[in-house]
Each structure stands twice: as C-alpha cells, then as structure tokens.
Recover the amino acids of this structure.
C-alpha cells in the first residue's frame, strides 16, 4: 500500500514545515525510528558480509524470508514467526553446507532458494487475505508501523550488535585471513556459524519493515560503498552505518511525498552513492597515474 493512494502530500520546499508536517503523524515517527534501527543493524552486519564475501548467503537468507512470512500467515501465525524461523534456519543450513566445498554450497543453496521462493508464491495464492499479494512482504511498507514493532526491532537489533561487538575482533581476523586465524587458535568455524545466525536474525528483523528484497540492498550496498571509499576497518564500518542511515531516511522522506514505493527510493539512493564512490576511486587512480607519469626520474633531473 502506498501513501499516495490515499492522497500524497505536496512538497512545499520549506524544509522545516515539511518535516514538521511529516512527523506530525505517529506512523511516520515510528517509520523513521524503525528505519534508523534497521539501517544501523543492516550496515554493521552487511559490512562483515561484504568483507567475508558472503553476499550470496545474505541474498539467500533475505529471499527465504518471503516464503517464511507467507507460510506463517497461511498457517494462522504472525508473519514475524515465519521471518525468524526460516531466516535463522536458512542461516544454519548454509553454515552446515560450508564444509562441502564452495561449488556444492552454491549449487545446493541456489536450488533450495528457488524452491522456497516458488513455495512462497504458492502460499500467497492460497492465503487470499494477504494485502496486495506478495508486494507487501517483498517490498515492505512504512505504513502502519506500531510502537511495539519498533520496540521489537530495537531489542533484536541491540542483541545482534552486542554479540557482534563481543566477537568483532576475532571475527575480523577470521574474515581477513581464516587460515592464519585458525593457526592462532581462533575458532573460525564457530565464528562462521555464529555470524550466519546473526545474519539470519538481522534479516528477519529488517524484513518486517523493509521487505525481503530491500533488506538485501541495505545490507550490501552501503557496506560495499564504504569499503570502496576506505580500507580502514573502523572508518569503513562507521561510514557504512552513516550511508545506510542516510539512504533509509532520505528514502522514507521521498516515499512520503511521492506515489512510488519505499524500496525504490532507498535502493536507488544507496546505489547512486556506490556509483559515486566508484567514480571517485577511478578518478583518483587516473590522477595518480598522470602525476606519476609527469614526475621526472632521477636520470632526467641530472640530465
């Protein structure tokens, strides 16, 4: 459901008035609060996802959230139970498959993912009470977010961030060089399983608001952009959080004043930032090569 379907408000270009009008609605205040929590958790988890080259795993976990929610609704339960059950279960399956080789893991994961997505569409067809079919689950909505949902998101997000803070240093070591980390006594396998469970919980948390497709974009794009801009872990992680936060809040603002879905704006803003980061890196490389070519060698200076 889009806000514009009931009459979208007009943008007046008076920023103070516009924001006061937008935040006069409790559902928009809740949407911005939920968006802030989701952006921070997704960026932090996504930073490790990109660093560990597990974007396919993140895509799989986010995709299976759709049949999880649809199946829970079909069985008469809240979609929340479906999100958490299938996302965490998918993370555990991926963790179990990691010992079978990269090719076997990718093939089997992709096959299961395709089957579950098809099952999700079957569940939505069988459950005729689902508002607008699969659109709400896939693309999310910022309408109707309650204070209790914000509280659940905050609690789950705080637990995920607390665990990541506890295992962050060894997880970083294991992500950068797992062989050396294992040689130093770091429990690489246990950290991998634990991180995938955190990925499942973070995906289930974010999918309730952003939709199962948007959460993947929020996890990967800001983190990838930050790692393009800087290789320093602390700066890169902080930048990923800032970029995810900005994309979410700007997307919420744009969606409030337009007839188009929230997912389009958040993903487009985040992707635009990634393109700018790539352009900046390419420009610096070109300028670096130009300066290196223009600098005279020692022999030329003597001559």
């Amino acid at each position: 459901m889009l806000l514009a379907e009931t009459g979208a408000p007009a943008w007046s270009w008076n920023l103070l008035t516009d924001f006061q009008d937008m935040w006069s609605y409790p559902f928009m205040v809740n949407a911005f609060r939920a968006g802030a929590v989701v952006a921070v958790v997704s960026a932090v988890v996504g930073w490790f996802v990109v660093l560990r080259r597990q974007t396919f795993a993140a895509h799989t976990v986010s995709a299976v959230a759709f049949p999880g929610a649809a199946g829970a609704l079909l069985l008469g339960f809240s979609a929340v139970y479906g999100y958490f059950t299938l996302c965490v279960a998918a993370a555990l399956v991926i963790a179990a498959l990691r010992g079978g080789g990269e090719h076997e893991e990718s093939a089997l994961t992709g096959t299961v993912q395709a089957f579950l997505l098809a099952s999700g569409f079957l569940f939505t067809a069988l459950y005729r009470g689902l508002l607008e079919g699969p659109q709400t689950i896939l693309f999310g909505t910022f309408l109707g977010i309650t204070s209790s949902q914000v509280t659940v998101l905050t609690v789950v997000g705080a637990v995920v961030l607390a665990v990541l803070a506890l295992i962050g240093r060894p997880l970083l070591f294991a992500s950068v060089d797992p062989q050396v980390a294992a040689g130093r006594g770091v429990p690489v396998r246990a950290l991998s399983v634990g991180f995938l469970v955190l990925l499942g919980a973070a995906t289930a948390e974010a999918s309730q608001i952003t939709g199962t497709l948007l959460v993947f974009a929020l996890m990967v794009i800001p983190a990838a952009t930050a790692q393009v801009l800087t290789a320093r872990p602390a700066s890169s992680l902080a930048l990923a959080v800032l970029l995810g936060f900005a994309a979410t809040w700007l997307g919420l603002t744009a969606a409030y004043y337009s007839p188009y879905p929230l997912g389009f704006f958040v993903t487009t803003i985040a992707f635009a930032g990634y393109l700018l980061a790539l352009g900046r890196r390419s420009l610096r490389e070109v300028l670096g090569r130009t300066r290196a070519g223009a600098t005279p060698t020692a022999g030329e200076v003597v001559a």
Q: What stands out?
A: The chain has 13 helices and no strands. Residues 1-6 have pLDDT under 50 and may be disordered. The radius of gyration is 22 Å.
